[in-house]
């Protein structure tokens, strides 16, 4: 079962919740840090890195001897990764290339060759008790976050655990879509503020377009009735859990601690939550 934890915006406590869900179920889950532009799960899980793999993409390289400077490749690139620079010929901006292959296909002289180029890496960590987590990291300056996310999601785990807890990047861009796609269930973490509601609506639109089952976790709740509760009631969206605002959580987080260290009783609830999702996903394959 693949559970993606996502949020329409950063700072909602998405990773805090994802880590707690994983730690409460680490005897049956693998944690995937897919927030590849700023992965930080390793700061909290404190595992031992046992392997590092490079993520590569095919990036075009132009052979100036074969190039007739027709400019077709530049016109074909939807990502502005190619430019014609007068006598210097075609310039390739590796960081902008999405490895779509269009320029190579269109080149009439065979001047373009695709070359494996590193765009990121995946670290695999061992944790106490036999659990494992994988963390993707995009190379600085590159725009190929979806490729690194896909590589993390496809990377084989060395544990027999079949549940994947996927910590998705914040927002609702291509990276969000790549990380939640194929999930059996998406948990959207939000907070009861106007910004939280605005971005939750975007995330809801995203998962509904992808036709993925989802529910909401509300973090930093101060009052019994709040705007997220009203919105979810109107839209008939299930709220799985509400976590009250607690200064101790922020303090613990700033020291590299986790939610369960402050709220140990939450472990049982998160254990049951995963079991309920198992039943639900099993009932709706
Ligand atoms: S492979 Fe695609 S994205 Fe990359 S330079 Fe060629 S056309 Fe542009
Ligand atoms: S399409 Fe080929 S020949 Fe034309 S400018 Fe690009 S690399 Fe040169």
Q: Could you give a short description of this structure?
A:
This protein is α/β, with parallel strands linked by helices and 285 residues long. The chain has eleven helices and eleven strands. The chain has helices at 14-24, 41-45, 72-76, 102-106, 145-154, 174-180, 194-209, 227-235, 247-254, 259-262, 266-283, and strands spanning 2-6, 29-33, 48-62, 82-84, 90-92, 112-126, 132-138, 163-167, 185-190, 214-221, 239-244.
What is the CATH superfamily classification of the largest domain? P-loop containing nucleotide triphosphate hydrolases
Quantity of strands, as a count: 11
Which parts are unreliable, with pLDDT below 50 for 5 consecutive residues or more? none
Radius of gyration: 22 Å
Question: Strands across the major sheet, in which order?
Answer: 3-6-7-2-8-1-9-10-11
Content of β-strand: 25-35%
Using the 3D structure, state the CATH architecture of the largest domain. 3-Layer(aba) Sandwich
Return the string of H and E elements: EHEHEHEEHEEHEHEHEHEHHH
From the helix content, strand content and strand pairing, which structural class follows?
Answer: alpha/beta
This entry's quaternary arrangement is single chain
What is the global morphology?
A: elongated
Looking at CATH, which topology of the largest domain would you report?
A: Rossmann fold
Summed up, the domain count is: 2
Query: Span from first to last CA?
Result: 10 Å
The percentage helix is 25-40%
> What is the count of DSSP helices, taking H or I runs of 4+ residues?
11
Largest sheet descriptor: 9 strands, mixed
If you average the pLDDT, what whole number results? Answer: 92
